[in-house]
Amino acid sequence: MPELPEVETVRRGLTRLVGNAKITSVDVYYEKMVSPEADQFKKMLAGKTIERIDRRGKYLLFRFNDDLTMVSHLRMEGKYDVQPDGNPITKHTHVVFHLDDHRDLRYTDTRKFGRMHLLKTGDETKLVSGLKKMGPEPTPETLTVEYMKQIFSKSKKAIKPFLLDQSNIAGLGNIYVDETLWLSRIHPEQPTNTIPEFQIRQLRENIIAEIKRAIEGHGTTVHSFSTAYGEAGEFQNHLMVYGRKGEPCFRCDTPIEKTKVAQRGTHFCPDCQVLRKDPGVTMVLGLTGGIATGKSTVSEFFKAYQIPVIDADKVAREVVEPGTKGLKEIQTTFGWQMIQPDGTLDRHALGTLVFSQPEKLAQLNSITGPLIKKAVVRKLRGYRRRQVPLVIYDAPTLFEAHGAAGMNEIMVVNVPDQVQLQRLMARDHLSKKEALERINAQMPLAEKVKRADVVIDNSDSVDKTKAQVVRWLNEAGFGSLITDKSN
DNA sequence: ACTTCGACCTGCGAGC
DNA sequence: TGCTCGCAGGTCGAAG
């Protein structure tokens, strides 16, 4: 069954159930499973007390008295459970530890892949090959940015098998690799040494956070099975790509694809996770929010730090300026009435026309949409060429306009519903009814928050909002761009 | 020293 | 129904 969060769940459950239990005798039904050979294994364990249970990567370490450690790996399907002695042995029970309180600790494993090694405490890191070269645990203290940068720069292989290799990082398996790559928008076949620093940082944050969340959710339960040590995992309910082939991506709605990478089933979003020849160093942060949530306030903070901001509304105006292809198409489609005497677009006339007719609005969007996209891509290409580290794409309808897939990360500016309503009424001098109409015309703010990587809470003071932006800049590795260090 | 690929096992569901 | 095939949360060792 397990990756790190599941093994940790087992460790905690077993600690509760059999911590301090004493073993009277051991039965081994599948001898290949244990080392040293079965008779010796049984003899060594008889009379021993389980003093504690540790974990390293996906290995369980049972610590007994007299400096004895049993290293146990569950591989694909190994499970421990505790039951009263005398219960009939099932087909797939391979090792039974009889306890002195009339209970059994049983190990079952349909595929017989699991292994148990008994050795002197301390020898496990010298004698068990998997433990010998185990990489750091995915925690903030042990998995450092410096370490990641260093190992990433040295490997040309695809990132997916690289992350599955326990000697690089401990504990990740097929599920959490797919999940964290999706969270970080990295294609599973992207060569590891081509991944830019900002993505290494994102990946690190996502790995650490995802593993932590999964442990808190008691791990992921794939095949339906419930554990005898208390809880069945519930983290499968939080999976973003694993097992979701054909279902819409939670960020951009594109169907999730399933392929094979390094002989393992691999799930990813073809639009969010694009294989890049030269990924470049530029990170694009999508900035969005709801009407009157204060997105422009946040946008101004970035501008104040000289961080380039591409304003989607401004681009939308540029593509219909006099002399543009966009304006010409609007004239052809909607008539000369849409053009004012001075040659500029009559926004009021166009607005009135499309406001009441959804099909006209769709027609307008099909003209301007591609032009905006092209203009944004052109601007981004310029920043990429100049190796600008961070660019903000400020777009009120980022999700609605299907712009999410092109972003490296998405920041949503959020306020409580009531605050949004009050601010909109005050700002635009609207009645409650009018304000609600405008709010309800957009994708619900809660839905945007759900799709966000970072949420900025703008319900308090400007200073508090700014502090959140500054914190994000620091955590994302852009601390050097902050010019007013006093904050 | 690198990466790739079969082997280790059993059960289950899809497709014929 | 019965058969074959492919697939499953992992790792190791042989072969290229």
Automatic annotation (TrEMBL):
DNA binds at H92, R111. The active site is at P2, E3, K58, R264. Involved in base excision repair of DNA damaged by oxidation or by mutagenic agents. Acts as a DNA glycosylase that recognizes and removes damaged bases. Has a preference for oxidized purines, such as 7,8-dihydro-8-oxoguanine (8-oxoG). Has AP (apurinic/apyrimidinic) lyase activity and introduces nicks in the DNA strand. Cleaves the DNA backbone by beta-delta elimination to generate a single-strand break at the site of the removed base with both 3'- and 5'-phosphates. Involved in base excision repair of DNA damaged by oxidation or by mutagenic agents. Acts as DNA glycosylase that recognizes and removes damaged bases. Has a preference for oxidized purines, such as 7,8-dihydro-8-oxoguanine (8-oxoG). Has AP (apurinic/apyrimidinic) lyase activity and introduces nicks in the DNA strand. Cleaves the DNA backbone by beta-delta elimination to generate a single-strand break at the site of the removed base with both 3'- and 5'-phosphates. One of its GO terms (cellular component) is cytoplasm. Monomer. Pfam families: CoaE, Fapy_DNA_glyco, H2TH, zf-FPG_IleRS. It is found in: Cytoplasm. It catalyses: 3'-dephospho-CoA + ATP = ADP + CoA + H(+); 2'-deoxyribonucleotide-(2'-deoxyribose 5'-phosphate)-2'-deoxyribonucleotide-DNA = a 3'-end 2'-deoxyribonucleotide-(2,3-dehydro-2,3-deoxyribose 5'-phosphate)-DNA + a 5'-end 5'-phospho-2'-deoxyribonucleoside-DNA + H(+); Hydrolysis of DNA containing ring-opened 7-methylguanine residues, releasing 2,6-diamino-4-hydroxy-5-(N-methyl)formamidopyrimidine. GO terms for molecular function: 8-oxo-7,8-dihydroguanine DNA N-glycosylase activity; ATP binding; class I DNA-(apurinic or apyrimidinic site) endonuclease activity; damaged DNA binding; dephospho-CoA kinase activity; double-stranded DNA binding; zinc ion binding. Binds 1 zinc ion per subunit. Its EC number is 3.2.2.23, 4.2.99.18, 2.7.1.24. This is Multifunctional fusion protein. ATP binds at A292, T293, G294, K295, S296, T297. Pathway: Cofactor biosynthesis; coenzyme A biosynthesis; CoA from (R)-pantothenate: step 5/5. Its main location: cytoplasm. It comes from the Bacteria. Its cofactor is Zn(2+). Residues 2-114 form the Formamidopyrimidine-DNA glycosylase catalytic domain. Residues 240-274 form the FPG-type domain. Keywords: ATP-binding, Coenzyme A biosynthesis, Cytoplasm, DNA damage, DNA repair, DNA-binding, Glycosidase, Hydrolase, Kinase, Lyase, Metal-binding, Multifunctional enzyme, Nucleotide-binding, Transferase, Zinc, Zinc-finger. NCBIfam families: dephospho-CoA kinase, fpg, PRK01103.1.
